[in-house]
Amino acid sequence: ILLRALQGLTLKDFQEFKMKLSEVHMEGGWNIPKDSLAKAAHPCALVSCMGENYSEDTVMNIAIGVFREMNLRDLAEELLDETVKEHKQKYKEHVVQGFLRYKEVSSRPGEKLSIRSHFTTLTITRKPRSKHEAVDISHGCADTSNGPATITTQTLFNPDEDGQTPQVVVLVGAPGMGKTMTVRKVMVEWAEGTIYTQFDYIFCIDCKDIALPKEASVADLVSKCCPHRRVPVGKILEDQKRILFILDGFEALGFALVQPEEELSSDPRAVKPLETTLMSLLKKTLLPESSLLITTRPMALQSLGQCLEGEDYMEIVGFSRATREEYFHRYFGNDHEADVAFGFARANEILYSLCGIPIMSWTVCTILKQELHKEKDLMECSKATTWMSVFYLSWLVKRRDRGNPRDLQRFLLKLCSLAADGIWKHKVLFEEKEIKDRGLGQPDLLPLFLNEKIPRKGVDHGNIYSFTHLHLQEFFAAMFYVLEDDGEMVGDSGDITKDVNVLLESYSESREDLNVTVRFLFGLVSQESIEYMDNIIGCRTSPRAKEDLLRWLQGRHRGTSQPGQGMKLSRLDTFHFLFEMNEKSFTQRTLGGFTDMDLQDMKLTLYDQMALSFCIRQWPGLGSVTLRGCSFHQQDPEYEVAASVPRSGPSDAGTHPGPLAEQQHEEQHSPIDVLCQALQQPGSNLRVLRLQWCRLPESCCAALAALLAQHRSLEQLELGDTALGDRGVRLLCQGLQQPRCCLRVLR
User: Fold this and answer.
1) Cα(185)–Cα(319) distance, rounded to whole angstroms?
2) What is the DSSP string of 175-241?
């Protein structure tokens, strides 16, 4: 480009260009020797000479300056346009390099993941807002199929219902909802030319970056985003409409958004305190025609709303039901592992609901991947819902400013008191006064745990707060009963007492809605949870409640047994509580006085069967298992259909599996496999197995036949009202004919 420009000069202009070139003073000195310059008698030699001594960027900038001095402004502008075009391409390459790959907490040293293969579509809803409306932050991660219009990263700047294209978009989301991942996705796809082609430049300012300058102009911030020393900032900022600024993690800036109008800047090159420069961008005194995308936690909305005009609000509400499974497949990168892990999560209703929060899906996948890599069968996985929630808590507290661990302990005590008070009173929304009265107004901690909702103008009760998800409120409510307070409990804990027995009795008598809280309570008093909370998170929890839990479990079943018969367990939740704690010795102590299990009219999910299986393995005194009118489900109906369809390629066309393959396929999907494997444990004293009115299919017979063939004490099997079919009965007979079969009664 420079060569072409020089070739178009007259001989006189060419000589003047060389003369002025010899007078240029650069920082660090001008390194072209005078004799070399004199020998460059034609444009080609001169360009070569310049290129040998300086970088291409420097050469172009010097040439543009010389042409301006010579009053050849058209040539200078032509060179500048070409420089900008080239710079734009280099900048896009730099963006892809910087934003495409990222490091996860659980990544191996040096391992980076690609946003292309790991980004899973998030559910984002548009929340139009006028000055008189509240920004409604959803409680939990509801399925929004019937709610507000769902949008994607590609449509954030699409025209609204009135045909207005937003100039300022605020993307709201709780911690771990995927705001920064969304920004990465936007940056990469823009640089690759697939979205937002209306913008020539998108500049991302990471508000969480501790290296942000104390003072800066907009030109400085633009230069900081660019990889090259000499950035044509003036030319870039000329066409404001084609620039988008992204402020990611706005709440991290932490300064008051109040600036006197006269202090705001209108000059892109004016160096001001960082808050003044950013406020000038927000207030549109700087680059008023540029666009803004701001990501923030709900806590910053009120102050942000005071300095924006005509903004559109969007909320990330997490993964939909469909994208939860997609996330598992992207995380594992292996269909089999992903299917196994998702089946585990899907079977646990609480866990599956929590997986709507992206960071909880990451937590679950990270833990299950560790289990699978230990070559463990997930049906025996000891990491139940509480452990996943504890792991999530550790992720949250790592995001706070490092402070005194006692401060965290005190804050969590107050937070858990609030959660418990809400659970007792069926309350999920909390007024600002309650937050302040409990001493929870700590800006470094509060936004990690609670969402903030701005009230309508004119409503005087202040902001409204809620936990990110109802199950997380229940988790913190359970923590209220086990966190140690050293007698220093500060703030009002309401009229609730820190007595585990009150919680347990209320649950037994009338408050079935306390089930999840009680389940978390069992998980939190396990030795593993106590040690992790203390060593990793820095919170002290007490195991004192354990004996109360043991007495309650043993006492609640006494009234269900008939005189002269063995003690009978007939409540499914008992097995879930023991599975949640996952301590073999505690389970053995609890079940030691019982001999019978009797469950009726229940739909047993895979997770239910895992809980039963864990307890049966620690229950040598179990003599009788009765399941009447129970159905066995491995997954939810949609997932079960997908899992039962064999994946076949073109090579499978026209083939039909033989009888053995059919039998193996059916055995593999037998709904009672998990139960039968547990009953085969060495040392089992099971004598009676009743599976009545359970509508067992033919595929169960192989598992039952194996149980009959190996169990040394099983004397009685009752299979009333089944759908075994002739083939199923033949399989059963194979088990009956085995020499180790001790069965005496078949009904």
Assistant:
1) 16
2) TTSSHHHHHHHHHHHHHTTSS-TT-SEEEEEETT-TT--SEE-HHHHHHHHSSSSS--HHHHHH-GG
Question: What are the extents of the domains in the chain?
Answer: 1-71, 99-134+149-318, 321-382, 403-440+458-487+495-548, 564-634+670-746
Question: Could you read off the pLDDT of 143-184 as tens digits, one per residue?
Answer: 444 444 568 889 999 887 788 889 999 999 888 889 999 999
SS3 state at 345 = helix
Highest mean pLDDT among 162-176, 401-415, 569-583: 569-583
What's the one-letter identity of residue 505?
E
- What is the rounded distance in angstroms from the CA atom of residue 379 to the CA atom of residue 610? 6
d(CA 714, CA 687): 4
For the beta carbon of residue 502, count every other beta carbon within 10 angstroms: 13
Provide the CB-side half-sphere exposure for 571 (13 A, CA).
Answer: 18
Q: What is this structure's pTM?
A: 0.70
User: What's the burial of 413, exposed, middle or buried (CB within 10 Å: 0-12/13-18/19+)?
Assistant: buried
Which class is domain 1-71? mainly alpha
Q: What is the pLDDT of residues 501-531, one digit of tens each?
A: 999 999 998 788 899 999 999 999 999 899 9
Architecture field, domain 564-634+670-746: Alpha-Beta Horseshoe (3.80)
Which CATH architecture group holds 99-134+149-318? 3-Layer(aba) Sandwich (3.40)
Alpha-carbon span 183 to 170, nearest angstrom? 12
